[in-house]
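hi got a favour to ask and not much time before my train. below you get a single protein, a line of residues and a line of whole numbers that encode the local backbone shape. could you go over both lines and see whether the tokens make sense for that sequence. a few lines back from you is plenty, here it is:
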Amino acid sequence: MEYVTKERAISILRSKAPNEEAFTRVLRHSIAVMKLALEISEGIRGINRHFIMSASLLHDTGRFVHPPGKSTILHGIAGSRILRGLGLYRHARVAERHLGVGISREDIIRQKLPLPRRDFLPLTKEEKIITYADNLIAFDKRIMIEDVAGRFVKEIGKEYEERVWAFHREIMAMVDGRRKP
């Protein structure tokens, strides 16, 4: 089991950042994602909240290699490579699977994305919660799911909108499930 303290996760981010500004930007975003992911995961059975904490902090490690811009879609793969190099394999899977609501092999082929031709879909509850929380955080501010759906329609296309809503319903079903005895 990969046990990463909050302090170690922040230390990893600092060690990979090219400068203090990049470190601060990624850390502020990651802390906001972590707080929301922990809020969402509260009380959900079978969830490793400690892992959510550390993986949320490390999910955007690849931003230091591929900041927002033309090659931003590659930041998940870059972060995965960095985290695998540290022996953090579960954290690496979060990094590579957290983009959008996941990227399928078919998406990669159809959109001619510069990614390996395989699925990059969040599979575990923790991966899904972190991905969902990341979508709802713009820099370090929370946004509405309607804004997320609208952004993906604009950036990727109308067909992606239903996937955003289906992902939202899946997360809400987990949240609703915690209220049942």
